[in-house]
Amino acid sequence: MTERLLDLTQHEIQALKTRHNLADAHTHQRQSPTQRAIVAALPDLWYEAEQTPQAVLEDRFKDAFFQLHGQHSVRGGERTLLSYAASISTIVTGMYLAQRQLSVSLVEPCFDNLPDVLKNLGVHPVPVPEEVLHDPALIYQRLVETVRTDALFLVDPNNPTGFTLLRHGRTGFQEVVRYCVDHHKLLVLDLCFAAFALADPRFGRFDLYELLDGSGVRYIALEDTGKTWPLQDAKCSLLTPSPDLYPDLYNINTSVLLDVSPFVLNFVTRYVQDSTHDAMASVREVVAGNRELAQKKLHGSLLEHQEPVVDVSVAWFRIRDERVTASELHRRVAARGVYVLPGTYFYWSDPRPGERYVRLALARDPREFARSLDRLREAVDDCG
């Protein structure tokens, strides 16, 4: 069955049927003590949402989100469009690119949902290797040498590798923006994993929108709550374009949906505020603890942990033995009831480099995660 699957999402659907699901990056960890208090208050949140105007709930959510993330320059602004999933915001972005017949360069590797959405809308991205972004002193020149399209589409932090331009503070983003301004490129930023940079004590976030708006670059920025908190997939995505693009993006967005559920907005806002109060501890501790456990339990096996720049909620492992491919390893561990994602799909333009990697999801209950790792280690050792 797994050999016939078209994309990573179809793999994740299969993984949801398994006992040891280490595939999808959705949040399956348990609630923290303060989050349990939010769950206990769900009836009150429901009735509060009934009695509160939609616009008030939307503004409250956006203000709480951007306050948590330190993006103060867009707090209280009118440019941010909400939807109930990051995929919807990506579709709106892709529709804009298709309408304007803009060609796109997209970072590789990245989650295959992005190129798939674009292709389904008639936009066929060309790859930009992530390595182009690794050295801030060379970013500008390497983009000049690499990008031949109208738009540049980056994912930061990147899924699956955990790379971020924040590695060198503001410099990486500044160089990308400088290139886009000088060469008249539209910059599209998928920031859906940005909460993990915020939670990582080595990084945090500076006010990126202040940089973007001050530079004059044309941009579309996508953010999300879906991979951050254990919300049973109740979530909200944010799309913020530069002022010149807002009218067009607004018109496309309203053709797709009216609004996000007022109850979901009210519910998710409480989780955002909770993370403001605990400084992202509930997110950081689960991910960091499970990453450390994965490294410990898989040490000395076929799988070699690839250290991310940002401690995102997925772990990227290289297969040490050149004779074992990711596709083969995936099949053999799946037969033992453990589901990981093969790296082939992340290398969306050419799957061959992805045969050296697999991805594990970390947003899991630590006790269940430990049992899944034990089963994975047994299966991996049998492949050696």
From TrEMBL:
Residues 58-375 form the Aminotransferase class I/classII large domain. GO terms for molecular function: pyridoxal phosphate binding; transaminase activity. Its cofactor is pyridoxal 5'-phosphate. It comes from the Bacteria. One of its GO terms (biological process) is amino acid metabolic process. InterPro entries: Aminotransferase_I/II_large (IPR004839), AspAT/PAT-like (IPR050596), PyrdxlP-dep_Trfase (IPR015424), PyrdxlP-dep_Trfase_major (IPR015421), PyrdxlP-dep_Trfase_small (IPR015422). Keywords: Aminotransferase, Pyridoxal phosphate, Transferase. PANTHER family: ASPARTATE AMINOTRANSFERASE. Belongs to the class-I pyridoxal-phosphate-dependent aminotransferase family. This is Aspartate/tyrosine/aromatic aminotransferase.
